[in-house]
Amino acid sequence: MTDPWVLRQAILDRGIELGFSKIGLAPARLKDATPRLREWLERGYAGEMAYMGRSPDRRTDAGSSLRRAETVVCCALNYYLGGARPAPANRGVISAYARGEDYHRVLGEKLEALAHFIERRAEVTTRRYVDTGPLLEKAYAVAAGLGWLGKHSNLLSRDGSSWFFLGEILVPLELPLDTPTRDHCGTCSRCIDACPTRAIVQPYVVDSRLCISYLTIELRGYIPRELRPLMGTRIYGCDDCQDVCPWNRFAKISEEARFFPREPLSTMDLVSMLRLSREEFQQATRGSAMRRARYAGFLRNVAVALGNSGATEAVPALVQALSHEEPLVRGHAAWALGALGLGEASSGLLDALGREVEAPVREEIQWALAALAG
Hints:
It is a single chain. The protein is α+β, with helices and mostly antiparallel strands. 37% of the residues lie in helices and 10% in strands. It has helices at residues 4-17, 34-42, 103-122, 137-143, 190-194, 212-218, 240-243, 270-274, 278-284, 294-309, 315-321, 327-340, 346-355, 359-373, and strands at 22-27, 71-78, 93-94, 127-129, 148-149, 155-156, 164-171, 200-202, 205-206, 234-236. The strands form 4 sheets. Strands 1-2-7-4 form a 4-stranded antiparallel β-sheet, sandwiched between helices. The chain has a two-stranded parallel ribbon with strand order 3-10. It is elongated and about 80 Å long.
């Protein structure tokens, strides 16, 4: 049988050869993380992410996913694209992680290669996850010494900030483990202060229901009206809490070319996005993580961004969207017209109200008309 220390070093060496930025080994069971997860769920902070509440104990016990799992090999891949730059008012802001090729694919390829290496070397069966399995990824990464949990709830490292994708390989062998890193946030509260919607309700705790990433990606229905003005022109995710982190000064540009912005969404203006057909959306998001928002959700986000953009030239496209096949798009387009505050949109809204049969959409139209009248 291979010496555990020799196998450990071989795994680390092979992982770096494959391009991983950081690798560490954690125990298969994280008993200390379970109470915190349960408290977060009990407070309702998971929002509509019901899957988080299914068998929460499994998320801290890798043995529930792979029989006899004893070690979790935690891998991190840097996706930092450079400092934040102001976006033109007519462009939507997309989170850095979603601008390039789907990280599930890029990270998955490297993780698969490392898993096969372990299986051949140790003659065992492994299981791997890239944000797809019932594991608390960040908690395992902390246990593996890859960094600490920042006050924004993301993994933080002294040599790369929080710009990492995470993946895990479950191994049915006891291997030498890494030591967790201590917290280096200190008294800093920049991420808390920077959050547009105050989603970081206390240090290290995020209420997903307020988080722009959740609102633009995970939420399937209507975005709460009081939160829409706070979203600015963000159409997929939000990086504000990471952008302001002081540890970001140590971040290095990713060496993975597939993470850099790809066409056409990286250069498309908001009005053009709102006019995308379902087929065009599918084509534009092929091989992209942005498909997770789905067609109606994505156009919903674009409509809200237009409402916050102040772009008067958006009115014709928004009026046209009042006839969109998706009620979710019609409703948020109506809100956007009211938010822009241009009286010329009143006739289009009145026409839409006369033919609209969906109650939530009618309510949005009535709100918009009242806003314009006021």
